[in-house]
Amino acid sequence: MAKYLFPAIFDAGEDGSDGYTITFPDLPGCISEGENVEDAMSMAKDALEGFLYGMEEDGDNIPSPSAPNDIEVPATGFVVMISAWTDIVRDEMENKAVKKTLTVPKWLAEAAEKEGVNFSQLLQFALRERLGMNKRSS
To answer: If you classify domain 3-94 with CATH, what class do you get?
Structure first.
């Protein structure tokens, strides 16, 4: 599994509003925000996983993470190490359902509905059989 651990800066800002802006010093452009610490932690993980997944897919070089002590942190911020598993994101993306519109004769649709046929499941089964795929290919 591709597992990463990167430092994130959580900055509350100086305007007195709730919430945090999250940046990753080693990954310019990887930015998120959260309404509170719990939300910010979740958003940081999502942002990091998605960003690194995109870098892997594009063949980009993923930098080594900085040591937390080497990061300059604003007075209203703090550093948290965030973990990311891109294999989980990859699996979710590969198994993401896509909607396909199809047409069948009315009489056939009615007969199938009367029998409780799950059209999506049947189409997936038929496609796998037609393509010779017993299992999902990786």
So the answer is: alpha beta
